[in-house]
Amino acid sequence: MVSPSQHEPIARSSAAVEARGIGRVFQAKGGPVTALQGIDLRIEPGELFGVLGPNGAGKSTLIKILSTLLLPTSGTASIFGLNVATETERVRRIMNIVAGGDFSGYGLLTVREQLAMFAQFYGMPYREGMRRVDGQLEAFGIADIGDRKISALSTGQRQKLNFARSFLNDPWILFLDEPTIGLDVSAARDVRSRIRAFQAEVPGRTVLLTTHYMAEADELCDRIAIVDHGRILAQGTPAELKRMVQREALFIVGLDEIPPSTPLETLRRLPGVVSIAVRDAADAGNDISGVASPMVRLAIGLRDDASLAGVITALAGAGAHLREITKSEPTLEEVFVQLVGRGIAESDAEARP
Amino acid sequence: MQTDRAADRSTGGLTLREARPFGPLRGSAADAARSLVAASRLAWSIEANWTQPLYLVVFLAIRPLAFLGLFLAVFSIGGRLDVASIGFVVVGQAVFQIVGAALQGPTHALLDDRERYRTIRYIFATPSSLLPVSVGRALVKAAIAGSSALIVIVSGVALGMPLRGGGVDLPLLLVVVPLGLLSIVGIGVALGAVCVQLRNDAWQYPEAVAGTVFLLCGAIFPLEVLPGPVQAIGAALPITWWIEGVRRALLGVASPGRLGTIPTEELVAILAVGTVVIWAAAPRLFTFAINRAREKGHLDRNTAS
Prior knowledge:
The structure holds two protein chains of two kinds.
Chain A: E1 17-28, E2 31-43, E3 48-52, H1 59-66, E4 74-79, E5 82-83, H2 88-94, E6 95-99, H3 111-121, H4 126-139, H5 155-167, E7 173-177, H6 185-201, E8 206-211, H7 214-220, E9 223-228, E10 231-236, H8 238-245, E11 249-255, H9 264-268, E12 273-286, E13 292-302, H10 308-317, E14 322-328, H11 332-340, H12 344-351
Parallel strand pairs in A: 3-8, 3-9, 6-7, 7-8
Antiparallel strand pairs in A: 1-2, 1-4, 4-5, 9-10, 11-13, 11-14, 12-13
Helix pairs in contact in A: 3-4, 4-5, 5-6, 8-11
Chain B: H1 4-7, E1 8-11, E2 14-17, H2 27-48, H3 53-77, H4 83-116, H5 120-124, H6 130-158, H7 170-195, H8 204-216, H9 228-236, H10 238-251, H11 264-296
Antiparallel strand pairs in B: 1-2
Helix pairs in contact in B: 2-6, 3-4, 3-6, 4-6, 4-7, 4-8, 4-10, 6-7, 7-10, 7-11, 10-11
């Protein structure tokens, strides 16, 4: 560990993560395997950045390199201006890592004992370490199992313990490798909410999350990089990525029926309308007298949101009764399919031996 | 002692935590000491708390006593079981309990953490080095094996093993035991560094090395029994000198053969020099090997599943 005098202040202008041309090739029996190639990445302090990709895309390899567990075969990477290959000791002081789906831990230790041990490995005096351990146990709602042996924990409790460990050193950056994999809905929700709270507590705290859960990435991440076969195919905010597959605004408008006086051809000629089609006919439920009420849904593509007003005015003027209007957003799954050429489940199946 | 706030350096909303003192130690020495203590506590829980105390004592006694009985039986069949032979075999067998544990300790710590507990990546990702962690684990293993050694010696005395006239040479014992233990842990550290490069078969390497050392170090028979070149290898092992030092401290007599002709002061000096040489090389080899494992991607590679 370095003494205070060896530290120069870390520049506030440093990117939380800066990777340039990162590549990683593993030597395997069947020949070299390229896990990453030419990864360029810049993550700003305070961002929650997601790396989205199928199994075998290189997500975990990237996290291992950034968290100093693995050296790249080409390129350079830094965390808050510290080189991950050469300034490992300082990098480790300001970061932490959690991998999902692993059953790590010393079964004979209690939850509190294991956390106390890691507090020592982080260089904390015993009393301060225990204060932090108790704080994290409270924060994750596992204070009641503090004296339980790790071998007796459920998967969700183990992952909460893993998270509690990762928060012990107040990391500036947290690397989360598929953190909710294998967790039930409730435990996954707790973990996601704790990630958000962790970031909100101190400005500048950064999270790099790998996942292949599209909804998780969409819900949590400020920006996302989509990776496949070791390359970044696209990166941006979820909204930016979705715009890549949808150039126009898409609205779903539910009507009791298409007014005979205003056929679709008429609507298509309205200003700003790009496309219009019957999406489906549905049962909108019973009306007030208990009679089933049919509904037709139109999928209307518009140049911009403002063009919707003209369409609604025309429909209302023709006597149509509006039942619903929703804006349809493309999903990250659609973005993924467009970029990768296949769905993520399909990609995972391909990656399995 | 610095306050928390004084020990921290703020950068915007983030706080860089500096190295904390550990007693009189500062900087990396403080961290190493803190990690050593934490790893020792862990090792105690793993090695000593896995069963009821009674079963642990039985476990610690049965194996060495069974081997002792075996060797004494062999000597007896060969018609060479006398008081001197009992002392020779008992001390060799007792010390080797500790040698085996200390030699295999660092490798087992690294492989256990990689393959069984799957914690190595989380420990490696702390500012703490794996070196004090491995050493702490090995020292506790050796200390627990020390109780096996004690059981063997007490059994030897019960079988008629004569202790040194005027009592055990405690000063000599207090010099040779720590030196010998340090040298063996140093060799264990180097062995662990090599084994972390290997796949799950790596478990077997330290056992093979311990078995070979057992043959070469004069634990059960004098070095003179071995062929010439092999004798030279045995004489180069610090374990050989450690066992000889313990024999002289406990029994008051030197081993038969050339080893027995070396003055005790010289023996201690050779053991001390050997320990220094080992500790000059072992941490460097360890650091090199861990970096290589990091380069190759072997560090957190789980090969057990």
